[in-house]
Specification:
Layout: H1 2-7, H2 16-37, H3 41-66, H4 70-97, H5 109-128, H6 140-158, H7 162-183, H8 189-217, H9 223-226
Helix pairs in contact: 2-3, 2-6, 2-7, 3-4, 3-7, 4-8, 5-6, 6-7, 7-8
Length: 230
């Protein structure tokens, strides 16, 4: 009788920590979907700022609940760079360019969303089968981080304008940040800050590209660049 009761026992109820962490990770993924559908460049940039704020909140949440004090400094650097500085720079460039509507998609919006859902499901279930166990975040957060990375790649490939591709690259870094919190939240602070420095370099490169490309073509579409022959 005892084995029968053990076999029919309900699964353990998720803790409030796991629920909160997974809810924030889901917000990061949903904001990536919203970027994929956004028709305005400024909307994409604001959604990236919101996604970065969610990643910052997740780092702060892990620091407070798992007692990793280094993550407080990382959360502060992430907030200043990814929530304030990067969106401010890109919005300033868009104001100077006087361009708001994103260029045409290579696929329809519905097709892109369905493809993003398929990629997210693939990432979530495949990564969920990996023998990865985390002491800082629940393992499903790693699958959500992989889904964010794949959908960010989709945004880069299927949107034919510089802003969307820049935002897709920046949000890909957010997915990597979530994955690093799952796998190695206790990394030395200097390593985590080095990741943010790479993002800063990418912002400078994309900013110069946006300004020069718009100055020559009066457009942010990458169709002209796609027609270049080597």
């Amino acid at each position: 009788m005892v084995p029968l009761l053990a076999a029919t026992a309900p699964p353990p109820v998720p803790s409030s920590f796991s629920g909160g962490a997974e809810a924030i990770a889901v917000l990061v993924l949903l904001s990536e979907f919203a970027m994929l559908r956004a028709p305005l460049s400024r909307s994409q940039v604001r959604l990236y700022a919101f996604q970065s704020l969610a990643v910052t909140a997740l780092a702060f949440f892990v620091a407070a609940t798992q007692h990793v004090p280094e993550l407080y400094a990382l959360a502060g650097f992430s907030f200043l760079l990814k929530v304030v500085f990067v969106p401010g720079i890109v919005l300033r460039l868009l104001k100077d360019a006087r361009v708001d509507l994103v260029a045409s998609n290579r696929l329809g919006v519905a097709t892109m969303v369905l493809l993003a859902i398929a990629l997210s499901a693939f990432a979530f279930f495949v990564v969920g089968r990996l023998p990865v166990r985390s002491h800082s975040l629940p393992t499903p957060a790693l699958g959500l981080a992989a889904a964010v990375i794949l959908v960010a790649f989709l945004l880069v490939m299927l949107r034919s304008d510089v802003v969307s591709q820049a935002v897709g690259f920046f949000s890909l870094e957010n997915g990597v940040s979530v994955a690093s919190l799952v796998v190695a939240a206790g990394l030395p602070l200097i390593v985590e800050v080095a990741f943010l420095f790479d993002l800063l370099v990418a912002v400078v490169v994309f900013g110069v590209l946006m300004r020069v490309h718009h100055g020559r073509t009066q457009s942010l579409s990458t169709d002209v660049l796609d027609r270049l022959k080597g």
